[in-house]
UniProtKB/TrEMBL annotation:
<feature type="domain" description="HTH luxR-type">
    <location>
        <begin position="171"/>
        <end position="236"/>
    </location>
</feature>
<dbReference type="Pfam" id="PF00196">
    <property type="entry name" value="GerE"/>
</dbReference>
<dbReference type="InterPro" id="IPR000792">
    <property type="entry name" value="Tscrpt_reg_LuxR_C"/>
</dbReference>
<protein>
    <submittedName>
        <fullName>LysR family transcriptional regulator</fullName>
    </submittedName>
</protein>
<keyword id="KW-0805">Transcription regulation</keyword>
<dbReference type="Pfam" id="PF03472">
    <property type="entry name" value="Autoind_bind"/>
</dbReference>
<dbReference type="InterPro" id="IPR005143">
    <property type="entry name" value="TF_LuxR_autoind-bd_dom"/>
</dbReference>
<keyword id="KW-0804">Transcription</keyword>
<dbReference type="InterPro" id="IPR036693">
    <property type="entry name" value="TF_LuxR_autoind-bd_dom_sf"/>
</dbReference>
<keyword id="KW-0238">DNA-binding</keyword>
<dbReference type="InterPro" id="IPR036388">
    <property type="entry name" value="WH-like_DNA-bd_sf"/>
</dbReference>
<dbReference type="InterPro" id="IPR016032">
    <property type="entry name" value="Sig_transdc_resp-reg_C-effctor"/>
</dbReference>
<dbReference type="GO" id="GO:0003677">
    <property type="term" value="F:DNA binding"/>
</dbReference>
<dbReference type="GO" id="GO:0006355">
    <property type="term" value="P:regulation of DNA-templated transcription"/>
</dbReference>
Length: 239
């Protein structure tokens, strides 16, 4: 069996797109006996209402609604394991949700999974240095996967979120709302230059530089100049 990282890269040729990424993940899901895949964001807060948010999947709209309606996106044991751990969470409906077709009082999550045939799966968490936390999950009807397969799919998760970040970065760069002068000013501000120093470098008045920076801050809906620089860099507007 090839490792997950190789499978991912072979299935999504450049230029990377959301469609190509989804197609690759669907292929990998089928190759490992799963029916569906999903990329979800993991909430960073511990609030009672915190829940995972869908980013990309091959779920049907009916399954997505059922997943959320039955609270699978905020199921406490899963969220606790994903936020507190770095290893894949391999599960089956009987062990994790108490699925038992003969039990009329089983949890609604278990009843939903049984009705949709999603009786096992794996959650592969990815914790980013920038504060973003996500998970790649695969669901299906087969028996629980081995530790070796789970580790391979965990590599897929890292490459999938890396590719997703690149795709969004490129989309942001193409849709850059900043003018050339606004970008120049933010780049120099990122280097610690004052408005006066930026004006000297660009041969513009300090007042004009302040106007450019104020305009950029407003476009980015930033709270101040420092926040605007951070947002612009994060979104790829300064590349």
């Amino acid at each position: 069996m090839k490792d997950g990282f190789s499978l991912m890269l072979e299935g999504a040729p450049r230029p990377w797109t959301l469609e190509g990424l989804a197609s690759s993940l669907e292929t990998i899901a089928v190759q490992h006996g799963f029916t569906t895949f999903a990329l979800l964001s993991i909430p960073s807060s511990d609030d009672a209402g915190a829940e995972m948010r869908l980013v990309l999947s091959n779920w049907s709209e009916e399954f997505r609604r059922g997943f959320e309606r039955n609270g699978l996106n905020r199921f406490t044991p899963v969220l606790r394991a994903l936020k507190g751990g770095v290893l894949p969470l391999v599960w089956d409906a009987e062990t994790l949700y108490g699925y038992d077709p003969a039990d009329p009082d089983m949890l609604p999550q278990a009843r939903f999974l049984g009705a949709t045939g999603m009786l096992s799966g794996v959650y592969c968490p990815v914790h980013g240095l920038t504060g973003f936390n996500g998970v790649l999950c695969f669901f299906g009807a087969g028996p629980p996967i081995s530790e070796e397969v789970a580790d391979a799919l965990h590599l897929v998760a890292f490459s999938a979120f890396g590719m997703l970040s690149c795709i969004r970065f490129e989309e942001n760069r193409r849709n850059n709302p900043l003018t050339g002068r606004e970008r120049d000013c933010l780049k120099l501000a990122m280097l610690g230059k004052t408005s006066s120093e930026i004006g000297t470098i660009l041969k513009l008045s300090e007042h004009t530089i302040s106007q450019y920076l104020t305009s950029a801050t407003r476009k980015l809906d930033a709270s101040n100049r420092t926040h605007a620089v951070a947002l612009a860099a994060q979104l790829g507007y300064l590349s």
